[in-house]
Design brief:
By secondary structure, the chain is α+β, with helices and mostly antiparallel strands. The chain has 2 domains: about 55 residues, no CATH class; about 140 residues, no CATH class. The chain is about 20% helix and about 30% strand. It is built from 4 helices and 8 strands; from the N terminus they run αααββββαββββ. The strands form 2 sheets. Strands 1, 2, 3, 4 and 7 form a 5-stranded antiparallel sheet that branches. The termini are far apart.
C-alpha cells in the first residue's frame, strides 16, 4: 500500500510540474529518452525537440544478447573511415568479433578510434557499427551503432538491444561514420532503436 501511495505522489508531482516521467523498458532506453529530451544533449532540431515525446524501440529480446569471441588484430593500421560528410574518422580494426546469432555465424570488425585512444576516460572504448535487414524499413537506412568496452580476455557480450542510430538520422548537420559493408548481418535484427519519425 505504501508503495502505491509513493507512486501516486510522484505521478501527481510530475503532472503538476508539467513534466512527464522518462519512459523506457530498460535503463538504456530511459537514458536515451532523457538525453533526447534535454536540449543541452539532444541531437534533435529545435522544431523536433518541441514536440518530442520519446524514441521508438523494438521490444527487448534476450535472443539478441550474445556472447562473442574477440580476436584482436594488434598490427592493424589506422585508416580514414568515410562519413556522411567530407570529414573522415581515423580508425583501426581493433579486432574481429565472432558471434552466433539465430544459428548463423557472423564475423564483425570492431573499431578503435585514434581520438578516443587519446581521450581520458575513453581509452577502452570500441565502436561496432553494423547493417542488417531492418535498415530502411524499421531501422535507420544507414545502419546502427553499438558501444563496447575492451574486455580483459577474449570473451565479449554483444547486446543488440542497445543498438542506436547515428545522429544523422535525427539531424543532417551531423557527420556520421558510414558502416562498412563487411559488418552486414543478413537477418532482421529486431532489437534496439527504430528509425526516427521526424515530426
Amino acid at each position: 500500500m505504501k508503495s502505491i501511495i509513493i507512486a501516486f505522489v510522484f505521478i501527481t508531482y510530475a503532472c503538476n510540474n508539467g513534466k512527464r516521467p522518462i519512459v523506457g523498458a530498460t535503463d538504456f532506453q530511459r537514458e536515451m529518452n532523457a538525453k533526447f529530451k534535454d536540449a543541452t544533449t539532444s541531437p534533435l532540431s529545435a522544431s523536433d525537440l518541441k514536440v518530442f515525446k520519446n524514441l521508438k524501440f523494438f521490444e527487448v529480446d534476450s535472443t539478441f544478447v550474445v556472447k562473442g569471441v574477440l580476436k584482436r588484430t594488434p598490427n592493424a593500421e589506422f585508416f580514414e573511415m568515410k562519413t556522411t560528410t567530407n570529414r573522415v574518422s581515423r580508425e583501426r580494426v581493433f579486432g574481429i568479433i565472432t558471434i552466433n546469432l539465430q544459428n548463423k555465424i557472423y564475423h564483425l570488425n570492431v573499431y578503435q578510434g585514434e581520438k578516443s585512444m587519446e581521450s581520458t576516460g575513453n581509452e577502452d572504448y570500441l565502436f561496432l557499427p553494423f547493417l542488417d535487414d531492418t535498415n530502411g524499413e524499421e531501422s535507420y537506412a544507414g545502419g546502427r551503432y553499438l558501444d563496447l568496452i575492451i574486455p580483459e580476455g577474449d570473451s565479449i557480450v554483444i547486446n543488440f538491444n542497445q543498438a542506436y542510430n547515428p545522429y544523422c538520422d535525427y539531424n543532417e548537420k551531423f557527420s556520421c561514420p558510414l558502416v562498412p559493408r563487411e559488418n552486414y548481418i543478413d537477418i532482421p535484427v529486431k532489437a534496439g532503436l527504430k528509425k526516427f519519425k521526424h515530426y
